[in-house]
Amino acid sequence: MNQSLPLPAAVLLALVLAPVSIIARSEPIAGWPAYGATPGGTHFSRASQITPENVHRLEKAWEHRSGDIREADISEERFVTQSSLQVTPILVGERLYYCSPFNTVFALDARSGEEIWRYDPGVDSESEQFLPNCRGVSSWTSGNPGRCEHRIIVGTLDARLVALDAQTGTPCKEFGKDGEVDTSQWLSEHHPREHGITSPPAILGDRVITGSMVLDNLRTDSPGGVVKAYNVRSGKLEWAWNPIPPGVPDRNPDGTWLSGTTNVWSIISVDAERDMVFLPTGNTQPDYFGGHRNGLDYYSSSVVALRGSTGEVVWHYQLVHHDLWDYDTPAQPTLVDLEIEGERVPAVVQVTKMGMTFALHRETGRPLWPVEERPVPQADAVPEETLAATQPFPTHIPYTIQSALSEDDAWGLMIWDELACRDKLAALRNEGIYTPPSLDGSILYPSFGGGNNWGSPAINPDTGVMVVASNRFPGYSRLVPRSDCEESDQPQIGTPYCVEWGVVLSPLGVPCTAPPWGTLDAIDIVAGKLLWSVPLGTSRDMAPFPFWWIRGLPGFAAPMMTASGLVFSGISNEHAFRAFDLSTGEELWKARLPTAANALPMTYQLEEGGRQYVVVAAGGHWSGGSPPGDYLIAFALPEDGG
């Protein structure tokens, strides 16, 4: 029997339940609230509507174009590199938020891709900023209604933090000065292009935490790589950490931050439960000579854990001692719990340019499996240099790059091309990984581009399976005495040497080792087992016909993983976006793009029974010759259900 409530009780019940239902409808069933899906960057989504069985039916659902593109202009008078759209949008409620290479911020309707608002912070798009990009924005909310109670935070190429009201896109005036904070305050004197922000800041409670990009190889007294935490409401600086050795003053005599310290240019992770911040540190300037450092690289090429409320160091673990190879820590530390011998262990998984993966205990920094300190090459370093006698080698998790390389590995498109490569490799110093830079020139393998680069891994938190992209091309470095330096060399001012560096290429312009030059690799972390490795991309968009057959091209970006057993990846400089079967590495789907997708894809589903969208930015990258683009493209199954 139906029984009606008295009117006052019915009205009261409606008032109580209505806000709950509204909130429930606004929360996606599978979201992407931070750059890496989670504050610890797992790149993993619970979305499961798209499966290995139906992924072949994916079609373009919508496209958004920012109009924010810069073509390269490199001449004797100018050195202006092309823009690169490396962004990953975030989803908050039913809106996507993302930034262009020159930091224009957009809010889009997550169903249609229609633009709701845009905000241009006024970055000079004609400046000589090297490789302008913005990898993402961050979201903070108080949980209360009202203006600026939900804020979108973006770091800019000219080193500002900007806070915007998420509803309207207007600046939150109470944040710093008119909605902006200048993060370069109290840095030593520098050219604007030497210092900026390219990665999304981290959010921990009411703090915005950011590192910075510091241009490599210019000089020993480049601006310090200070990590800073600001109050998200006021913009007030709450703490700052300059990576200096214990007992060394963190300021220059004039009161500015000590120069030349290592920076944090990549993505920061946070653990709110433990009040911890995890930093992937860069290399102390410059990259290829360290005779002047005198211990200044104490925190270089490391994972550093700070207390989020104070900025104090909790622990640090150095992955490369006295780094002379540009083997800085490039990727976001991935926070995941691993089941080891029946116990769930809070871990930090860190991939590296060396193709090595370190797994550390999140609370102590202790390796979860043995790491061996092994002797490394010492011969032929320049006399002013002091080398580390050993380097750390993890023993459990397989390497994605086997670093033994010899002239017998020479490869070319033609016999004469291969012979030229053999001569090039034979002429370079090569005693394996960590061969020191030399006057004759030394092999860098893995190269300065990796191994693994800023494209952090995707990790399934339920199984501990990791998928990561690896570059496999040889590089080299050659130190040049200061009196013989040429304009094309990297100056390394403040040292006795400039440096010539690059990729070891054949006369026909291909890497001097056999393909694949880029792979997607799946590893069971706990079992310590390589599950599969597949070439990533083809040479279709990098070489003339008939040389489209080469499989496995280098690139920069990251894979994304779903609970249904799919891996999505652009990464390669081929103009394509792909889906792979997580269990086998088999390619299941491919879509042509206007240019290369050198960005981490993301995915979301707003409501039960609604469409799951997969979104990727196609913006090109200077390193592979793919043209700049401004395309944000969403794919979904057909609306008839797929």
Going by helix content, strand content and strand pairing, the class is: mainly beta
Uncertain segments:
1-25
Q: Helical segment tally?
A: 2
The span between the termini is 42 Å
Strand order of the largest sheet: 1-35-36-37-38
Mean pLDDT: 92
For the sheet with most strands, the description reads: 5 strands, mixed
Estimated helix fraction: under 10%
* Count of DSSP strands: 41
Shape: globular
Report the radius of gyration as a whole number of Å.
24 Å
Strand content: 25-35%
Give a brief rundown of this model:
The protein is mainly β and 642 residues long. It has two helices and 41 strands.
Task: Outline the structure in words.
- The chain is mostly beta strands and 642 residues long.
- It has two helices and 41 strands.
- The strands form twelve sheets. A five-stranded mixed beta sheet has the order 1-35-36-37-38, with no helix packed on it. Strands 2-41-40-39 form a four-stranded antiparallel beta sheet, with no helix packed on it. A four-stranded antiparallel beta sheet has the order 5-6-7-8, with no helix packed on it.
- Strand 6 and strand 7 form a beta hairpin.
- The two termini are 42 Å apart.
- The N terminus is likely disordered.
